[in-house]
Amino acid sequence: MDYTILVAEDDKDILSLVKLYLESSGYRVLAAQDGEQAWELVQAEKIDLAVLDVMMPKMDGFALTQKIRETYNMPILLLTAKIEDTDKILGLNLGADDYMTKPFNPLEVVARVGANLRRFYKLNSTQCVEKEPVLLTLGELELDTEKLILRKNGTEIVITPNEYKLLAFMMKSPGRVYTKSQLCEAVNGEYYDNYENAIMVHISHLRDKIEDDPRNSCYIKNVRGLGYKIEEIK
C-alpha cells in the first residue's frame, strides 16, 4: 500500500529534510508550513498519517491535532522542541499517538512513521483475516471493528487510534485484568520504557468519553497494584 504522509513544519530546512527522507523511503509526502495550510490538506486529501510540529503559525500542532480528531481517524506524530512531560501529556490527551523531541535524527522520524503505520493499519488487516466479531457490545457501548466506530446509545463517539486499540483489546475479554505493560504492547505491538504514563493518559481520556461520570467509572476500573480491566456489563 502507498501511504500518504502529511508533514506540517514552519522551519523550511526541517520540512525539506523530513520530506526528503520520507520520500526516499517510498512515501508520498504533502508539505505544509503552517497549521491552516495543513488543515486544508487534511480536508482535501486522503492522509494516512500526520507529522505535526507543535509550534506553528496560524494554528499550532496542539490545536490542529484536536481539530483533526473531531472528524478524522489517522495516526498523529507530534514534533516538539518542548521537553516537559506536561506538553507531551497534553499532546497525547488531545489525540496524538506519538511524539518526538527536537533535535531529532530524520531516520528516527522515518522509523516512527513506519511503526505507527504498521500498528494502525496492521490491526485492521489482522481483524479481517481472523474474522473476529464486527460488533463488540458492552452495556451501552458498541464498537464497530470494521468501520472503527464507537457508539454509545447509538451516538458516535470520536476516539483516537490508540484509544480504539485499547478499548477493542479490553472489550474482547471483559472482566480480565491487564497490566500497563500488556496494554502498552496492545497499543504499540511491543513494550516501550516510560510509556506507562501515556497508557494512563489514554485510559483517562477514554473515561472522559465513555463514562457518564469519569470520576465514578462504570466501565474501566483500576485494579490496585495490577492494572486495569473493563467490567462485564450486560
TrEMBL record:
Domain OmpR/PhoB-type positions: 133-232
Residue range(s) of DNA binding per entry: 133-232
GO molecular function: phosphorelay response regulator activity; transcription cis-regulatory region binding
Domain of life (superkingdom): Bacteria
Record-level GO cellular component terms: cytosol; protein-DNA complex
Keywords associated with the record: DNA-binding, Phosphoprotein, Transcription, Transcription regulation, Two-component regulatory system
Keyword Transmembrane helix listed: no
Coiled-coil residue spans: none
Pfam families: Response_reg, Trans_reg_C
UniProt GO BP: regulation of DNA-templated transcription
Name of the protein this chain belongs to: Stage 0 sporulation protein A homolog
